[in-house]
Amino acid sequence: MARPLTMLLAALALGASVTASAGQRTLTLDPDGTTVSFTLGATLHTVHGSAPLARGVVVFDSDGGVASGEVVVDAAGADTGSAKRDREMHDNVLMSARNPTVVLRPARVEGRLPEVGSTALTVRGTIELLGRQHEISVPVEVAVRGDEVTIRAEFDIPYVEWGLHDPSAFLLKVDHFVTVAVAGAGTLSAGPAAAGETAPSAQDQPQP
After folding, report:
1. What does residue 130 show for φ and ψ, rounded to 5 degrees?
2. What is the mean pLDDT of residues 148-174?
3. What is the pLDDT of residue 201?
4. Cβ atoms 39, 47 nearer than 8 A
5. Residue 14 pLDDT greater than 60, yes or no
6. What CATH superfamily is the domain 23-190?
């Protein structure tokens, strides 16, 4: 009796494992179809800018849970339309010569992704700025149509609190947070990303 019972338990465990991994999905963002824009409030005017998406791959369970991957923004390519302002931003705020990217590393997705239709998810993880990890929670609107996905997200980054330079001057005061908006398009596939498709996730602890 012991052997059949052992075989039954093993079969149940295997079935549970298959069921648990059956909902795993990989979202691969299209850099050409994704825009990353940012807005910074100031005394005299509001600054608008954008930065290219270098790459983005997120692996997660469609029912929510642990996630991995990286969404990498080309900080060195950030632009606000003013050469003088951009020079200040790159040299003194982003320090992009030494820190050319900003990286979002998802650790968890909250919410359920439908087979078809729209939903709201929350992505929790870290953002790497100037080589330091900071915890963040990002609300994301997702629309699924077959293997095509569109996303919309907007969130604030308290860059001064996170240790970046405050570019305020005597007569010009700027907000201590920047609002980031992402409008993206990508493809959804079953299972984890293929080897070499996504950069490895970092497990560094967030720093204040």
Report:
1. 50, 35
2. 92
3. 44
4. yes
5. no
6. Lipid/polyisoprenoid-binding, YceI-like (2.40.128.110)
